[in-house]
Design brief:
The protein is built from 6 helices and 13 strands. The chain is of the alpha+beta class. It has one domain: CNF1/YfiH-like putative cysteine hydrolases. The strands form 3 sheets. The protein has a 6-stranded mixed sheet. Strand 7 and strand 8 form a beta hairpin. The protein is globular and about 50 Å long. Bound molecules: zinc ion.
Length: 228
């Protein structure tokens, strides 16, 4: 099974699938090339669509997929109005967010600490609307929870000053950030209803986690595509 979660959403221009992978695949740039290629092959076969990756740089740049993949763009969100193109947001503790418009446009967002701080979700929503999107909904994928994501107090204060909902405390009583709460607050502020998928990456061994596994951690992915 390629996806641990897969839901189909009827839209005016076909059907959109929202899906998430787990630890059974490693789609990360640090995976052995054969492992990553096998994972992408599984995603392509399961979706019947062409996978599009991005080189995620913890910013708020959004790339529009308007044709076959060429170079992998430096971006933290992908959006498209096309069918048959599968957009991937990869993560291991950061928040993968999938966006679906009732009119059929889709987006995949990598919202890490810097992405939340710099508003990558809002940037992706803005570009989706430029493409003509109406009535956008979101699926918020597995990520590290606020009880696990310890950060220095100054960093927590800096991010919480911009996105108050991120302010959190670990289960052991130290400063933390709740990136999922931050993303949900940003979606709510934009009037976008959101569904939560999956648990905490650090606590659930079935998911990839950088905080748990360190530099050797793999990457899961949120995947979204439209079928005509
Ligand atoms: Zn947790």
């Amino acid at each position: 099974m390629t996806f641990f979660f897969h839901e189909t959403v009827p839209v005016t221009t076909g059907t959109v699938s929202v899906a998430f992978t787990d630890r059974r695949l490693d789609l990360g740039d640090l995976a052995e090339p054969a492992v990553r290629e096998a994972g992408l092959g599984e995603v392509a076969a399961a979706s019947g669509a062409t996978p599009h990756l991005m080189h995620q740089v913890h910013g708020a740049h959004v790339h529009v997929v308007d044709g076959p993949a060429s170079a992998v763009p430096d971006a933290d969100a992908l959006v498209t109005a096309l069918s048959g193109e599968a957009l991937l947001a990869r993560a291991a503790d950061c928040v993968p967010v999938l966006l679906v418009a009732a009119s059929g446009e889709v987006g995949a967002v990598h919202a890490g600490r810097e992405g939340v701080r710099h508003g990558v979700v809002a940037a992706a929503l803005a570009l989706l609307h430029e493409l003509g999107a109406t009535d956008v909904r979101a699926w918020v994928g597995p990520h590290i929870c606020g009880r696990c994501y310890e950060v220095p107090a100054q960093l927590r204060d800096e991010v919480a000053a911009v996105v108050p909902a991120t302010r959190a405390t670990t289960s052991w009583g130290t400063p933390a950030l709740d990136l999922g709460a931050g993303v949900r607050a940003q979606l709510a502020a934009a009037g976008v209803p959101a569904v939560d998928v999956g648990g905490c990456t650090r606590e659930d061994e079935a998911l990839h986690s950088y905080r748990r596994d360190g530099a050797a951690a793999g990457r899961l992915a949120g995947v979204v595509w439209r079928t005509p």
